[in-house]
Amino acid sequence: MNTEPDRRKVYRSPNIVAFLVTGAVVGIILGAIIGASGDSGNYTDWSAIGYLAVVFGSIGALLGGLAAVAADWWAHR
Q1: DSSP annotation of 43
Q2: Membrane-crossing residues (predicted)?
Q3: Domain with 55 in it
Q4: 3-state DSSP call for residue 18?
C-alpha cells in the first residue's frame, strides 16, 4: 500500500483588482501633481487637477491591468 501523498503544482494567480487599483491611485497622484504644477491656461486650477487626475488614473489602471496580465502569464510559464 502506497501512503505517499500526490504532489501537485500550486498555481497562484495575481490579484488583478489590486493591480488595477494601485495603477489608478498612482495615476491619480501623478495627474494631480502635474495639474497643480503646470499652467492651467483657460481652466481653473481645480479643473485642471481633476481632469488630469481622471486621465492619468485611467491610464494607470490600464497599465496596472496589463501588468497583471503579464504577471499571470509569467506565473503560468
Answers
A1: S
A2: 16-36, 48-75
A3: 16-29+45-76
A4: helix
Render pLDDT for 11-54 as a digit per residue (tens, 0 to 9).
788 899 999 999 999 999 999 999 999 888 888 989 999 999 99
Q: Which three cell numbers stand for residue 40?
A: 492651467
Cell 501588468 found at: 67
Our count of domains for the chain comes to 1
Residue 66 lies in a domain: yes
pTM of the shown model = 0.80
Question: Is there a contact between 29 and 52 (Cβ–Cβ < 8 Å)?
Answer: no
What one-letter code names the amino acid at 51?
A: Y
3-state secondary structure 25-41: HHHHHHHHHHHHHCCCC
Question: What is the CA angle 75-20-38, rounded to 5?
Answer: 130
